[in-house]
Design goal:
Elements (H helix, E strand, L loop, with lengths): L4 E5 L5 H13 L9 H9 L1 H5 L3 E7 L2 E9 L16 E9 L8 H15 L4 E7 L3 H9 L3 E6 L7 E7 L9
Parallel strand pairs: 4-5
Antiparallel strand pairs: 1-2, 2-3, 3-4, 5-7, 6-7
């Protein structure tokens, strides 16, 4: 059976669909009375703004946008971590696969494609932050060799877990 999942950069005509798919992935993690949640979901949905500042990859599953991942290679997409990117660093953000497309390895393929792209662009380290309630994401990152850098607390924002991966090592494949 041919592979029906394609990972590639988002096209401007796909910004709305990619934002919707990624937002569907995040909605289940909404915490009651979570400060700033609605604003964050609006940022997740706004793929067009991110695509102008970073690289947004989409996963196409049988012709439908199933999810996306955002990669910071040259600068931070605000709001985000306060410190600037190190010269050898790529930072992964907003990885999400719509619930109806889960269980096919799409999230893994998006992350691996981001690792490969960062490596191609000369980066040797990939970092990311994830919410403490996103256990499946944490398991994915650990299975790919990411190492936890601990909890990060920014005033007025949720507590996040940081991860780091040395990507100067051998390439991974998206299959």
């Amino acid at each position: 059976m041919p592979d029906e999942i394609e990972i590639r950069p988002v096209r401007p005509s796909e910004y709305a669909a990619a934002g919707d798919a990624t937002a569907r992935a995040y909605r289940e993690f909404r915490q009651p009375n979570s400060p700033g949640w609605d604003a964050y979901l609006a940022r997740v949905t706004d793929v067009g703004s991110r695509a102008g500042l970073g690289t947004v990859l989409v996963a196409i599953d049988s012709g439908v946008i199933a999810g996306s991942a955002t990669l910071e290679l040259d600068a931070r997409i605000s709001p985000g971590p306060a410190e600037p990117l190190a010269p050898d660093e790529a930072h992964l953000r907003m990885v999400g696969v719509s619930p109806e497309h889960r269980g096919k390895g799409i999230g893994r393929r998006l992350v691996i494609a981001c690792i490969d792209l960062a490596r191609e662009r000369g980066r040797s380290v990939m970092t990311l932050d994830t919410d403490v309630v996103m256990v499946a994401a944490q398991q994915l990152y650990l299975s790919l060799g990411f190492v936890s850098t601990g909890l990060h607390q920014n005033p007025g924002r949720p507590e996040l877990l940081g991860y780091r991966l040395d990507i100067a090592a051998e390439p991974r494949t998206t299959r």
